[in-house]
Amino acid sequence: MIIDVHGHYTTAPAALGVWRDLQIAGLKDSSKAPQASDLKISDDEIRETIENNQLKLMKQRGSDLTIFSPRASFMAHHIGDFQTSSTWAAICNELCYRVSQLFPDNFIPAAMLPQSPGVDPRTCIPELVKCVEQYGNVGINLNPDPSGGHWTSPPLSDKSWYPIYEKMVEYDIPAMIHVSTSCNACFHTTGSHYLNADTTAFMQCLTSDLFKDFPTLKFLIPHGGGAVPYHWGRFRGLAQELKKPLLEEHLLNNIFFDTCVYHQPGINLLTEVIPTKNILFASEMIGAVRGIDPQTGHYYDDTKRYIEATQNLTAEEKHMVYEGNARRVFTRLDAALKAKGL
């Protein structure tokens, strides 16, 4: 089985965006504010958006199952207050749950949290609990920068995050560390803010002893880990200077990387530097980079091609990347598959 651990509902029906625009307008003029019940999206509309997009490409490219979460750039936790984010998260998470119900063999949900700048992260717990217990979510997306590029929140090692970590450990679910839209003109959302955040999250963990407090906590750092694999020697050296254990002991029992790296040399580097047990297959298809590479004639985000072509992985190691590691890291996914006899 080929499991894609990084999928977003980027093709949701247009009505979702229209409702969000009204919600944002309502922050200035309450008379324009919509109710959640005003949003009407039929099952047929969901089927159309999935069958003609993600599912079509999954079949063409040869992947079987996608861990599916709300569109990352739409999370926009910096907009409004906690109630704004709470209503928006509930709507988006329900949509991904409906996708998983309409296509149970192809999609399983992961949740966005109703984060808001300056608001205690523990306020996200009711939505997290609902999504795990009622929707069968197998993971969450955790935004280390709800401010949208201004980095006003404490680092991931700060104890204010601990209530979320306690729930993650209780449910044995990992968090993908994923920021949202940048509202800082210095940082392009997908070209710099995302990759900056991936690198920053890794360094926040490196400089702390977070995993001593939570030995079973699991973070998935997307987009190949940002700058981490490319500068692995720098991080090893910094850990040494900070009197931290070797990275294999200090971080690699808890931190994992996906394969959303959109060229062959990048995947070659990732698979050469990072232990295979820490790499999970992903594409983030129909996401940040949707075009065709003129050098290859294939879509940039067709990452399975790169895994197949690399000389750094044996057949057994490819199985780990495609399936084994995902089932080990996302234990609720593994349980769901086993319940189906898979």
TrEMBL record:
Amidohydrolase-related domain residues: 3-330
Alphabetized UniProt keyword annotations: Lyase
InterPro entries per record: ACMSD, Amidohydro-rel, Metal_Hydrolase
Superkingdom of the source species: Bacteria
Pfam short name (any one): Amidohydro_2
PANTHER family: 2-AMINO-3-CARBOXYLMUCONATE-6-SEMIALDEHYDE DECARBOXYLASE, ISO-OROTATE DECARBOXYLASE (EUROFUNG)
Descriptive protein name: Amidohydrolase family protein
